[in-house]
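Many introductory courses stop at the sequence. We go one step further.
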Amino acid sequence: MSAADRLPDLLERLIPSRAARAFSFAILAGIFFQGLNATVRHLTLELPPLEVSWGRWIAGLLFTAPFLVKGGLASLRTTQLPRHLLRSVFHTAGYGLWYWAIAAIPLAQAAALGFTGPIFVTLGAALFLGERVRWRRWLAVLLGFAGVLVIVRPWNAGLNPFALVMLAAVPLTAASNLVAKVISAHEKPEVVVFWQSALAVVFFAPLALWDFRMPTPEQLGWFAVAGITGTMGYFLMTWAFRLADISSVQTVGFLGIVWATLLDLTVFGHTADLWTFVGAAVIVAATSYIAHRESVAARSGASRASTV
């Protein structure tokens, strides 16, 4: 049994309920991801964003190694290399923009804008995959973008352009996640995380070396923190998706704005304004409805298939 399977098995004995385990994994993943965002934000205040992204993935690759020790190099074989490469293109572009913007906007605002991922997934499914999207889901998409407008407030003279950069990153990361979902149907979580980290290191290397500054020992320590939080976040979320519907797990992910707000206040001394929470509530309502409709459609399809 690999190290990546031991923790879920241990928790299965401690928490027999699949739903309770799924929500526990999702809550912990959200905490780790917001810890990653806070660590990255701290580093991007001192180092170039692309170097921070590269260092974060190097650290992530190192911390993935313990999960692969038992299987050796043979456990890293993949039959999905073209899809891994495609995912890395989206991933590099999306997270390059994300890390560029994270230093300039509050974590709570970044978390709220990140909630728009399912909205872009719906748009992509309709425009590029030919999926039929009915009027109620289109209405939810429009509602979600209304929430974005409330947060970004482009009519405001004090508009932060980095909020738009952050928003531009979301459809790219959503595309990366869509490809990852396809890959996960064929490969184990530790293999998916390894190839994600390894290819990110390769893709970010020339960008990072273009404007490289030697990190201090303290900064290297923060890179290690980023590697731990990011790797654990991805494993925990993958385990959660194995135990429950993505629509159910996604609702727990909305707690991310709570963790982000607490980190903003305690670490960076920022207080989120009222409009960030209002916009986040609108986006949460829209994405929750989209997730609900997808769940209903999936159950309906499964029901029809069982009667054939």
